[in-house]
Each structure stands twice: as structure tokens, then as C-alpha cells.
Amino acid sequence: MGVRTRNHVQVSGQPGGRPIVFAHGFGCDQNMWRFVAPEFEADHRVVVFDYVGAGGSDLAAYDPERYASLDGYATDVVEIAEELDLEDAIFVGHSVSSMVGVLAAKRVPGRFGKLVLVGPSPRYIDDDGYTGGFSREDIEELLESMDANFLGWSSAMAPAIMGNADRPELGEELTESFCRTDPEIAARFARATFLSDNRADLPGVGVPTLVLQCSDDVIAPDAVGEYVHRQIPGSRFVKLAATGHCPNLSAPRETTAAIRAFI
Q: Looking at 24, 44, 94, 245, which residue is catalytic?
């Protein structure tokens, strides 16, 4: 099976332009970038894709062992970069994809020349001297709730993750995205995401990096984005006016402008 089919890779824009790769977060797919990615087609080679288990990816390619940690998802990104022969690409990762991008860039120096981390979190669980936003009990309860009733969990959690209660259609879209995901695969991806700890990987990031922090983000609060900024040498930190965890949907113009200003 080809990488392009496995990950439903779509390429658009200028063949000779600097590549820019948009990676989606948990419970989402490449469709979440539909208001942002096209804005870069005039001068970039734009790449979007789905992680195995999401969107138009090949579900038959899902391997529980490979995707038990974020390293497996980073391998997907590396293989996409190699398949497309990307050089000096800009990687834009939303949510958990931020750390996936950090891991991928470390493994293939030269393939990725800049990172844009949207709502990043290297660890969701609080630790001594570190605020992740959740206690271990919170995460265990979240995972148990997913296992017991995934559709119910999605209906309750998606609007909270999206924020923007005054625009319920956004929460509804995220709920529908969650519900399109295979529950078993989603539960495993959730474990890989919410039990991860990539703090030690941040100081080794050797490419220019932009940290985009949303306002009132229940998944990745301010303290987390500020921590990522402090730990990545020379990184730039931008606090968006956008609220919630998905500015690519709720505030695409502001998100696009922030990325443009950086690249």
C-alpha cells in the first residue's frame, strides 16, 4: 500500500513553492484545515493528510502496536515527507500533532525547516513543578468514559474542547468529526495522546518554532503554551484572541495571519 493512499495525502498549490504541511489533531481529519490551508496555495506546495484511523485514511493499515505511542504517528509524517521528497518544509501541527511534528522533525533533519505548534501540550497531566491542566484522575476518568460510551463522550466533550458556546455549530462539527472516528481506534489514540510526555524533546528542537496559544483553552491552557515556548530555544510565542482549542475552525483568518507573519 502506498503512503499517499494510506494517509489520504492531498497536495495542492505551487509545485515549486516551499512545502507547508498541515496536520490535524485528535478526533479530527484534514477537513479541519479547509479554511486555512487554501490560503497558502498561491505561493506554497500545500500538503494535508489524515492519520491512519481518521478521515479518508486506509483503516486496514491501522496497527495497534505501531500507534500505541506518538512515535507511530511521527513515523507516518516522516514517511509522507520522504514519499513527497519534502525539503525545508513548514510543519503546522494542531493539538497533539504539535508534538508529533517535534518528533518527526528531530528524526529527519532537513525535511522540516520550521514548526508551527497550534495549541501544543507536551504533557496533559500535572506533575511536580509542571501544570498540564489535568490530574491523572481526570485523564483516567476521561479514558474510562470514552471506553464506556464513546458517542456520549463525544457529544459532551467536543463542544467544551471547541469553546465558542455562542457558535454552537462549531461544537456540532467537532462532535460529528469525533463520531466519524472508529471508537476503538479513537480510544487508543486518546491514550497515546493524553498519557504522553514529550517535555524532554522540546529543548532539542533545532528549527525556528512558533507557538500559537489560544485564549480560554481547556485542553492546553496558557501555562502549557508558555512552558513550550520557554523550553524550545528561540521560539516565538503568540497569544491569539481566538478562544477554545480549534482556532483553525473558529478563527481561521487570525490563525492564517499569525502563520503568515512567522513564515
A: 245
245 assigned to active site: yes
Q: What is the pLDDT of residues 197-231, one digit of tens each?
A: 999 999 999 999 999 999 988 889 999 999 999 99
Catalytic residue chosen out of the listed positions 76, 94, 95, 235: 95
| Domain 3-133+197-262, CATH among 3.20.20.70, 3.90.1150.10, 1.10.3660.10, 3.40.50.1820 | 3.40.50.1820
For the question of residue 217 being annotated catalytic, the response is yes
Using CA atoms, how far apart are residues 80 and 83, in angstroms rounded to an integer? 5
214 in helix, strand or coil?
A: strand
In this structure, are residues 238 and 213 in contact, taking their beta carbons and an 8 Å threshold? Answer: yes
Annotated catalytic residue, options 29, 50, 76, 217 = 217
Please choose, from the candidates 245, 113, 30, the residue with its C-alpha nearest in 3D space to the C-alpha of residue 255.
245
- Per the annotation, the verdict on 216 as an active-site residue is no
- 10 Å Cβ neighbour count for 215? 15
Helix (H) or strand (E) holding 67: none
Q: What pTM was computed for the model?
A: 0.93
| 3-state helix/strand/coil string of 100-137 | HHHHHHHHCECCEEEEEEECCCCECECECCECCCECHH
Joined grid coordinates for residue 67: 500507534
Q: Which residues contact 261 (CB under 8 A, 6 or more apart)?
A: none
